[in-house]
Amino acid sequence: MGKNLLINSNFRNPVNQRGKITYTSGYTIDRWKHEKSNSVLTVNDGYITLSSTSSISGDYTTLRQRFEDPKLLEGRTVTLTIKGRGKIGAAIFANDYVSYNQKSYTDFQEMSTTVTLPDSITSFFVELRGFDSNDSGDIMWAKLEIGNESTPYEPLTYGEELALCQRYYTGLSVNTYAVGHNADGSYINFYVPIPVTLRKIPTMERFNEEDSLFEVFENGNCYTDYILKNIRIYPGHIYVRIYAENSKNRGLINPTIVIHDRVGLNAEI
Is the pTM of this model over 0.85? Predict the structure, then answer.
């Protein structure tokens, strides 16, 4: 049975750390990204739905997963299989488009495409998509494996998938607390625990821009004018440095930071 090279491939119960039911742009459920402004992904009970809002011919919906180390697949034969219904397609891209298949099913069926990849690869991704504008389709799962045959799909547990996803994206919950270290004049360092080590320095995604991102407390005093200046990543935590507005030296010794907004740490490809 071939190993599945995709992360978060079980759309019957996908990892969805961003927490939305409908996505119309950017990253959606973990590891999967819209590449066209007309694309819509809806998370349903037991499958996802891909649809296009465009009426322009050829403007189909797309959902992609990019690979971090494409050179591992150079010269290999791979098979991409999806189980879906409606008007659906699946494509493999290595540097440029190399293989595509599409079908129209009234009930859930499997569909595969197989290709031998080039000997030199600088980028690699798979794409799930519809046929054309206004098309839609439902997908239950996807599998990419080495070899020229499709083997049975065996999902990982949700916990296993979550651990794989969190290397690329992880979230901090509302009211996450951390104690300051090395306070020195106008800046404070904090070490905020995270479940995994991210693959690179993340960008920060906020979920509620109306509220302040964080507050600093010490001895009953609250400070809201600190500004985020630096993020670094270490095994099991991120290092955060914040500066007081106008570099004001408050002489804080043991401050506590409280993150008020739900925050995503994005280290995607």
Answer: yes
